[in-house]
Design a protein that fits this description.
This protein has 126 residues and is of the alpha+beta class. It has a domain at 14-101: Cyclic Phosphodiesterase, Chain: A, CATH 3.90.1140. It has 3 helices and 6 strands. It has a 4-stranded antiparallel beta sheet with strand order 3-2-1-4. Strand 1 and strand 2 (31-39) form a beta hairpin. It is globular, with a radius of gyration of 17 Å. It starts with a helix and ends in a 5-residue tail after the last strand. The model has no long low-confidence stretch (mean pLDDT 90).
């Protein structure tokens, strides 16, 4: 596992810190659920490709590579609940930015609680 973590660090070593924008709300019809848009999309797509290109993810194929980057707010709800939730939240949830200067590699335990395995600072060669 140590070699795989080193490989992950190496894969991300050329990524510089960047500003993340979150919001507005969005859904992905015909799929139910409510999400925040996040961007810049090109940075997240680059990160996704770099991370999934490492051996840690050999057994987890990137099946949703065409899905737009997002943060999930609500899932496992109906289309009707999605529409209602979107209407309730319009104009009431913040939008903003923050600086991304680290990547956290976390793994879920048997209860699906995530524990940090590795923190990777961006913009620093290993």
């Amino acid at each position: 596992m140590e070699e795989q973590l080193d490989e992950l660090k190496d894969a991300l070593s050329g990524v510089n810190p960047f500003e993340i924008h979150y919001g507005p709300l969005r859904s992905f019809p015909p799929y139910p659920g409510v999400t925040y848009s996040i961007g810049p999309e090109d940075k997240f797509i680059q990160l996704r490709e770099l991370v999934h290109g490492t051996s840690i993810f050999n057994s987890s194929p990137l099946s949703r590579k065409d899905r737009a980057p997002h943060m999930t707010i609500a899932e496992f709800i109906t289309i009707e609940e999605t529409e209602k939730f979107m209407q309730q939240l319009q104009g009431k949830v913040p939008e903003g930015t923050f600086q991304c200067n680290t990547i956290e590699f976390a793994v879920p335990d048997k209860n699906f609680y995530f524990e940090r395995v590795l923190r990777i600072p961006l913009g620093k060669k290993s």
